[in-house]
């Protein structure tokens, strides 16, 4: 049994639905300490109902500081699995279990890569959170603050998200779009539908605001990003009576945006539209876009992939958000990991051979960082 496979199985067996704490971090720490890492664990958000555990591990050295980032929390498994989602199960060439792909397998592969390079002399660190699949408030952002307070700053960072599509190595993420959620609210005055002059219906104002928002074309995309898009994701009145004009109505928007915009600029734009129709706006920016322009770092990662697999990876900014949006504040960041076909699905699975192959690629990246 390979080191990557064995550690993946132990991590899967440590149930860690977001926010993760405890046993799954014990497993990772136990794997890192014998490799010479100083492991620091802390809980953030202790005052909340869902505190988050985070881990920073570092092995000192001389040269470029390479950081690997990831998360040990997983989404809830859902009902209908063929086998227990937290009992790692091999069927044929696949290892099944929640987190096999997203992203306990990648964390295990990186640990195996480090173990295969005992003489790597440059600094290596792991930035691992238990809150990537959740609100992402007390996870990687808290780790970045913790590192900043101690003057720790990597030179390069690779996030082990499952970026591959059809086969391992076919895609690297060099950027991600930003994300902002908004709530457009229209306040009225409740009353009887037979006496509309004594009431004020908030729904027509909200519909008019949404119609104008729906007509907005933010951009046509850039060289590296697809067009930004605004989606209306919910519309709520909550009126149980057919003969009552409601007092309020609300709609929720989600905007994924490229680097032509910021969360603040989009909030100001939609707020202006809402105000024209007598509505108010609340917005929460969950992440700004980032781009690590193609260059030395992406070439280094690509070279390691080609050497191990013969596959020339595509550079992409597609997909949703990840914690790379926060880590990009520290240093150049790229994302690369396993095939993402089964992430968040029932019977999530990783090809066993891909775990060893990913460990080989990560080891090749470490070799190139040290040159």
Would you write up a description of this structure?
The radius of gyration is 23 Å and the shape is elongated. The protein has helices at residues 3-13, 23-32, 100-115, 140-149, 203-214, 263-276, 296-309, 324-327, 352-369; strands at 38-44, 52-59, 66-71, 89-91, 94-96, 124-129, 156-159, 171-173, 175-176, 178-187, 191-192, 229-236, 244-245, 248-257, 280-287, 290-291, 314-316, 333-335, 349-351. The protein has a 6-stranded mixed sheet with strand order 1-2-6-3-7-18, with helices on both faces. It has a 4-stranded antiparallel sheet with strand order 12-14-10-15. It is of the alpha+beta class and 371 residues long. α1 crosses α3 (100-115). The protein contains 9 helices and 19 strands.
Could you tell me the mean pLDDT? 97
Oligomer: single chain
Low-pLDDT sequence parts: none
Number of helices: 9
Principal-axes geometry comes out as elongated
Strand content: 25-35%
Number of strands: 19
- Main beta sheet: 6 strands, mixed
Write down the Rg: 23 Å
N/C terminus separation: 31 Å
**SSE order, one letter for each helix or strand:** HHEEEEEHEHEEEEEHEEEHEEHEHEEH
Instruction: Estimate the helix proportion, in percent.
Output: 25-40%
What strand order characterises the main sheet? 1-2-6-3-7-18
Structural class: alpha+beta
